[in-house]
Input
Amino acid sequence: MRPVEPADHRIRLVLLVGAVASFTLIGGWSGLVVVLSFVVMLTLHELGHLLVARWSGMQVTEFFLGFGPRLWSIRRGECTYGVKAVPAGAYVRIIGMTSLDEVDPAIEHRTYRAQSYPRRLAVALAGSATHFGVALLLLFVLYAMVGTPDPDRWMVGEVVPGTAAEAVDLRSGDRIVSVAGVAVEDFGAFGAVVRALPAETVEVVVDRDGVRTATVATIGERLGPDGTVHGFFGVGRARPLVTVGPVAAVGEAVARFGDLTVMSIDGLTSFFTPDGLSRFFSGALPDGSGSGPAPVPDPDGAVVPRSGGVVAPVDADDDRLLSIYGAARLGSAMLADGWATYLWFLVLVNVFIGVFNLVPLLPLDGGHVAIATYERLRSFGGRRHTADAAKLVPVTWAVVSLLVLVGMVALYRDIVDLPDLG
Output
């Protein structure tokens, strides 16, 4: 292969900078933040593999950020570090990952396949462990430093123009105490009271910065889905953020991490079934039943991540998967809602990527875990069993083909029918 000349490096760097600048102009700085967040997450994933492989005595020959043409590289010891043109993640190359890899017999003892079961397991699990560690850290920060939405209180988050709420000068951060003499500590109770009072003039008690004021408002009207006229006030809900102490934050982080892990597993098993895939693919057809708007994740609500590497908020009737494009749009919407919401988005993404990579099929990390475990169970009497990786090639290609197909359909759906992400 012809060595890359310095002039080629400069041209490729200029093209990369131009691409990043163009993306920033199109998607805004929030889109750039989301993409960089994904790149950092995937880089940390591969860095986990790198560090554990080195600790285990394995030979690592490459660690690159991005894919495609090489922009810059440097060799330190036996490993080449560098940057490639397409910032779509990162990769690390460990010699002898399967029985198919040809390795110099002199360094066979440093291959992945030659190591003990615990060391191979540690390397294979390192990537997902990194995602789980990032998710736990972000959860701790949210609970202890940033704050999480108080489930027992609500306040005005948005005022709709031309409504009763604007007429009485409600503002973001106000707290509605009662409507028509009925206490509305819960947002659901507030909605029920308002819907029952169309066109009624009632007393509304508002708490602003600790000072309560009574005012008179005329409830608006809106046609409900059942054809009847309902009352409409015109406010959106927000929840005040509350923090907890460090010890409590650790407990809350672990508990929520467990919940999100179970939800991610449930999302995976629901989506990657014949019925789930059928609904997803039918949604790409003009009259498919699998499409429809997807809700924006609410940090104090339940959100099920369902995708191969990205998060997709899903209605009960819509197993919607978002492509990288859709996920970037979703992340931008979360960032526009505030850093706290965006951190929740990153928590969801990290938990799901960690779980998804543990699916016991190649080329995912879980496939290497499954092979190492199978070999360990088949090894006895001092004889070590080695799985024939050639037999797994058709299955691996089938998995890769399915993931590529799902990703392409998800991208198509996001382009022609992007859900309302707020």
Notes: The longest helix spans residues 6-55. Residues 155-238 form a domain with the Pdz3 Domain fold (CATH 2.30.42.10).
